[in-house]
Write a structure and sequence with these properties.
Strand content: 35-45%
Helix content: under 10%
Number of helices: 2
Radius of gyration: 22 Å
Largest sheet: 5 strands, antiparallel
Oligomer: single chain
Shape: globular
Structural class: mainly beta
CATH topology: Neuraminidase
CATH class: Mainly Beta
Length: about 450
């Protein structure tokens, strides 16, 4: 093949790849269900008194807030209408979902109030959900509070001296879930770790992350400690805060887990991993039986304008769903004129990119970029039958949330998508109201069939 022919072939291949990545598929809203933001549940009876209320350390100066409801929740400078501390534990923050054969779903609440320091009184929990699509309501059939009775955590947990040893958002940041016969696999961000729990929610395994024989560490990894001498080098980490396992998928035969990091790995403290000319996130393969990393991984290149992923589930042996998003919230028509000078009557940075991608993970591409088959646009979902219960506009529905962290296939033609509402700090649906937990049933038959 001559150089000119080769050049043309490479150009066509590159163009085809780009077009495939940018291919948009239609999505139609079939049902919409809402769990109100202010859904608070009681801590278990045997939990320490410290856990009977939550959000006590969400003040700007990290001082304890004693009076319930004394600290207004804000999205930037915009009050959200809810205040901390809460009398109980909020169900908020659904981050990761798995559809079950009986039509129910398993999900989980993430670490609490946004970081390790302010979430020590936020209990970690899994939820077995039933969604009544006709009535538009979400019900928790069961809530499992996570514990560490056998001292499997490789560090002192917040409730170390308590009898029940409940886990909190000061211990782990749980973000993704895969139910299996003997319990639950959970992807975590602080380590980042892959965690295993039994069916009662007891921690059985904590698996540190390795890529290419090297540890992957976030600044919240409990093994990191500052030097006593300021002239010494600070401990090295290669993942940004909140860059751990936002996605955790399970192979259809149950033998492999695939952890998808939310942030790109830093290679030298100055640059991040890339693929196809874009920052790329690692998908890392774990053998479920041996609980050991296989050494195989792939790269997920972010789209232009994409900043993070939200969830990840396999469709079959080689294709999967991934939520990709920017960090905007709210609609562009109500965005502030100057993002650097946000006002209470506008969204600081409006939503531009909220998508569900279908990707192909091929054996031939181990160590390279996955193939993006196409996406659906979550900011313009067709709603010809007016199924939406809030949001959107004439003939369409939208999801202008900063974090959309739930996606899975329901059947051959439908997927479920849901947001993480970061209670009480996210207000993307309205300027002055904390976001609810919203779940959508979308008809996407063409998208699911795409190759």
């Amino acid at each position: 093949m001559t150089k000119s022919i080769l050049a043309v072939a490479l150009t066509l291949l590159t163009t085809t790849t780009a077009l495939a990545e940018e291919k948009v598929f239609p999505a139609t809203l079939k049902a919409h269900a809402i769990l109100p933001a202010n859904t608070i549940i009681d801590a278990p009876a045997d939990a320490a008194d410290y856990l009977k209320t939550s959000g006590k350390f969400s003040t700007a100066d990290r001082k304890r807030a004693v009076e319930l409801g004394s600290v207004p929740g804000k999205d930037g400078v915009r009050p959200t209408g809810l205040s901390l501390p809460f009398n109980g534990q909020p169900m908020q923050g659904f981050s990761g979902i798995k559809a079950m054969p009986d039509g129910t779903f398993w999900s989980l609440s993430d670490n609490g109030f946004g970081n390790k320091l302010n979430s020590t009184d936020a209990m970690l929990m899994l939820h077995h959900l039933k969604i009544d699509w006709r009535a538009g309501k979400v019900q928790a059939l069961e809530t499992i509070f996570l514990t560490d009775p056998d001292r499997k955590a490789p560090f002192p947990i917040v409730m170390e001296g308590s009898a029940a040893r409940y886990l909190t958002g000061g211990d782990f940041d749980v973000e993704s879930i895969q139910p299996v016969a003997d319990g639950f696999w959970v992807g975590e961000e602080f380590g980042p770790y892959v965690l295993k729990f039994d069916t009662s929610g007891n921690l059985t395994d904590v698996i540190p992350t390795m890529v290419d024989g090297k540890p992957v560490l976030s600044p919240d990894n409990p093994t990191l400690a500052l030097q006593a001498d300021p002239s010494k080098k600070a401990p090295a980490f290669n993942l940004k805060r909140s860059g751990g396992y936002e996605g955790l998928a399970l192979s259809k035969d149950g033998t492999k887990l695939y952890g998808l990091l939310e942030g790109a790995i830093w290679t030298d403290g100055e640059t991040v991993e890339q693929a196809d000319g874009r920052p790329a996130l690692r998908i890392i393969e774990l053998d479920a039986a041996s609980k050991a990393w296989t050494g195989r991984s792939w790269l997920y290149p972010l789209a232009e304008g994409g900043e993070a992923i939200g969830d990840f589930n396999m469709l079959d042996e080689k294709t999967a769903l991934v939520i990709e998003r920017d960090n905007g919230a709210g609609t562009l028509d109500k965005a502030c004129a100057d993002p650097k000078d946000p006002k209470p009557d506008c969204f600081a940075v409006g939503s531009k990119l909220k998508r569900v991608y279908k990707i192909a993970i091929d054996d031939e591409n181990v160590g390279k970029a996955v193939r993006k088959i196409g996406y659906i646009d979550l900011l313009k979902i067709a709603d010809p039958d007016n199924r939406k219960r809030q949001g959107g506009g004439d003939g369409y529905y939208d999801m202008p949330f900063v974090t959309i962290e739930n996606v899975d296939r329901v059947d051959d033609t439908h997927i479920i998508v849901g947001n993480d509402n970061n209670l009480p700090f996210s207000a993307g649906r309205a300027l002055d109201k904390a976001d609810d937990n919203e779940f959508m049933l979308l008809e996407v038959s063409e998208f699911l069939k795409a190759e």
